[in-house]
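INTERNAL TRANSFER SHEET
From: sequence group
To: structure group
Subject: Methyltransferase FkbM domain protein

Please process the attached sequence and return the structure record in the designated field. Keep the field labels unchanged so the import script can parse them.
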Amino acid sequence: MICLDSLKFENLGFIKLDVEGAELSTLRGAQSTLDEHRPVVIAEAHGIGEHTPEELIDFMCERDYQPLVLNDDVLEYHGNCGAEIDVKRNLLFLPNRKRRAAT
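Return from structure group:
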């Protein structure tokens, strides 16, 4: 098993996760990638596996991402992080800020 951070992407704008309940651990292994590239992330979140959807949302909110819910082909905006969210299918995370400028 490898971490996404070890892949050293040059340019990354989108991540789609379908890892059967390991979404949170996968994203934990991509923290530097999330901070550097600020990709849009979509993840399955059925509440099955090592984490709850709320834990996944909290993790991404701590990294300044806005959660949206994609249920039955309807994209639902739920305001601020920490709001109660009914997740049946997928979570979409949009970065609230762009990629950091190179120093």
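Handover comment: Helices lie at 23-28, 31-37, 53-62. The radius of gyration is 13 Å.
Transfer complete.
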